[in-house]
Q: What sequence folds into this?
C-alpha cells in the first residue's frame, strides 16, 4: 500500500491532532511524499535515441524519508563503505540514549543528535588510544537511528568499528584480541559522563537520568552484513510500503520483525497516530545521519594509506554505480534524458 495514499486519507486528522507539534521539516516530508511521482512533483521528458519516441514521466520527490526514492543512493553508499572494509574483524557498538532524555531530544533535535554521534565516537576513539593492546586510531562508521522495529521513538547510534588500530608514530597496526573489543559497561560510564557534560555545555536543562546507561558491543565479522543492515535505513524512511498491510475503519496496520525472536508481528494504529509515529523520525534539515571517523573519513587519505601499508593491502577503487537506464517501450533501446518540467508547466 502506498504511503502517499495513507497521507492523503489522514492528513487532515493529523493536522487536527498534531498540527501544533509538527516541525517545518515534517510538513515538507508530508508534502514531498504525497506528491512523489505525480504531476505535482513535475515531469521528466525522455527520448529514445533509436526510434525518437518521447515519453513524459512523473518526477520523483527525492526526499530521504520517501519509501519510493533514493534506492540508488543507498546502493552507492553501500558500495563506498564496502570498498573501505579491511581484512580484519569488525564490531558493532550501539550507544543508546535513556528514555528519560527522549523528550529533550525531540525538542532539541540538532543539538542532541549531533552530541550523541560526536560523543559516542569520541568515547570509542579515546578507549582505542588508551588501550594497551591497540594504542592507536580506529576506523568508525556511525549511523544514527531514532526508531525501534515497532517504529517507536528510541534514539540510538550504531557504530561499525574496526577490530584493530593504527599507530601513526610507530607506523604499526595492531589487531584486537578476543571476542570483545571494549567492555560495554566501561564504555557506558564514560559515554554517560561526556554526554551529560556536552548537553549542559549546550545550555540544555537535563532531566534526571539513570546512573546506568546501555552500550552494547558485539562482533560484526567482516563488517559487510552490518553495513547491509544499516544501509536499509539510511534513505527511504523507516518503513517500506510492503510493510503497510491495510487501511480500514480509520486505522492502519503494518508489519514488523520483532528483534529478539525474529518473529513477524503486526501493529494497528489510528491513521493520524500512524503518521505521527513516522514523522517523529524525520531528521532536521541538513542533518547528516551517517558520519565516518578516523581513517575511513574522506579527509584522512594519508592515514588510510598508512593503514594499507601496514596491513599490506590495497583497497580497490570502484567506479560509481550508474543508475539503471530507462528502456524505450517501443524498441527497448536506452532512452536519454531531455528536460525537467516544473509542476504546472502546462498552464504557464
A:
Amino acid at each position: 500500500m502506498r504511503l502517499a495514499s495513507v497521507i492523503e486519507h489522514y492528513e487532515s486528522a493529523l493536522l487536527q491532532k498534531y498540527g501544533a507539534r509538527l516541525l517545518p521539516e515534517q510538513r515538507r516530508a508530508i508534502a514531498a511524499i504525497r506528491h512523489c511521482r505525480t504531476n505535482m512533483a513535475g515531469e521528466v521528458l525522455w527520448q529514445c535515441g533509436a526510434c525518437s519516441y518521447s515519453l513524459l514521466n512523473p518526477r520523483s520527490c527525492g526526499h530521504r524519508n520517501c519509501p519510493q526514492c533514493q534506492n540508488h543512493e543507498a546502493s552507492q553508499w553501500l558500495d563506498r563503505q564496502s570498498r573501505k572494509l579491511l581484512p580484519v574483524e569488525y564490531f558493532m557498538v550501539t550507544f543508546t540514549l535513556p528514555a528519560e532524555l527522549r523528550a529533550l531530544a525531540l525538542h532539541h533535535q540538532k543539538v542532541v543528535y549531533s552530541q550523541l554521534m560526536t560523543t559516542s565516537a569520541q568515547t570509542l576513539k579515546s578507549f582505542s588510544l588508551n588501550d594497551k593492546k591497540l594504542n592507536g586510531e580506529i576506523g568508525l562508521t556511525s549511523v544514527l537511528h531514532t526508531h525501534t522495529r515497532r517504529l517507536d521513538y528510541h534514539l540510538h547510534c550504531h557504530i561499525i568499528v574496526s577490530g584493530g588500530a593504527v599507530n601513526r608514530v610507530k607506523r604499526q597496526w595492531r589487531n584486537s584480541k578476543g571476542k570483545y573489543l571494549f567492555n560495554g559497561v566501561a564504555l557506558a560510564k564514560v559515554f554517560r559522563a561526556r554526554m551529560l557534560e556536552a548537553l549542559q555545555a549546550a545550555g540544555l536543562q537535563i532531566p534526571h537520568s539513570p546512573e546506568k546507561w546501555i552500550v552494547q558491543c558485539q562482533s560484526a565479522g567482516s563488517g559487510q552484513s552490518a553495513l547491509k543492515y544499516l544501509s536499509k535505513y539510511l534513505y527511504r524512511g523507516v518503513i517500506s510500503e510492503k510493510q503497510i498491510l491495510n487501511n480500514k475503519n480509520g486505522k492502519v496496520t503494518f508489519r514488523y520483525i520483532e528483534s529478539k525472536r525474529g518473529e513477524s508481528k503486526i501493529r494497528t494504529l489510528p491513521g493520524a497516530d500512524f503518521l505521527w509515529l513516522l514523522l517523529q523520525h524525520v531528521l532536521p534539515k541538513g542533518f547528516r545521519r551517517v558520519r565516518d571517523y578516523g581513517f575511513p573519513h574522506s579527509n584522512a587519505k594519508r592515514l588510510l594509506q598508512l593503514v594499507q601499508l601496514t596491513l599490506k593491502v590495497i583497497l580497490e577503487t570502484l567506479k560509481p554505480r550508474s543508475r539503471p537506464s530507462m528502456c524505450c517501450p517501443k524498441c527497448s533501446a536506452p532512452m536519454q534524458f531531455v528536460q525537467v518540467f516544473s509542476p504546472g508547466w502546462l498552464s504557464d
